[in-house]
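quick one
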Amino acid sequence: MIIIAPSVLSLDYSCFEQQMRDLHASKAQWLHFDVMDGHFVPNLTFGPDILKAFRKASHLFLDVHLMVEDPEFFSDVFIDAGAQMITFHTEALDNEPQRIMDLIRKIKGRGVKAGLTVKPNTPVETLLPYIDQVDLFLIMSVEPGFGGQSFIPQSLEKIATLRKLIDQQQASALIEVDGGINGHTGQLCKQAGVDVLVAGSYVFKDDIIAAVESLC
Ligand code: DX5
Ligand code: ZN
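structure w/ D-xylitol-5-phosphate:
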């Protein structure tokens, strides 16, 4: 069963209530929350109080993607605010294995699921040592920072590689893909073995319920 995670980066905040009603009437199971600090990526988005508001307004699973320079600090802040999954970039910890493992343990120690991700130019092999440790691997299929970009086709090979290794090792980590997902690219990712589709601009451009349905 594929999980659809609309990215609220593209939600129209001028009609929040209606958009939330549509999301709740759709087949979406998660809400994807893109946290950007203006340093790790050249854009600024949400702080923890916005996540708290989503926690009050929705029963959906809150999937937080940290694009910040200091995930060791901000993981706690967003867990306090209601995050149920925290995904962080290995690059933000200079790809240092000890720091990565410590942060995975810290997140899980707080009873929250831990996800790991890399930017498109970081090899997917960087993720492999953590295959038994994490709940999710996020494949970035655009350069992080902005919604509405085009899907990078090489992401499909990364998904297929991870799918094979996860299955071979009988690991339970989910594979999520984020960036440029629409009806067509979503289908290709499903064929490559993805478990969670993040979609922002495609879901919120018009009919939310129909767009989510077309990704299932
Ligand atoms: C990019 C974000 C994505 C983005 C996806 O940094 O991580 O989640 O919102 O947006 P679309 O689906 O428009 O590419
Ligand atoms: Zn994201």
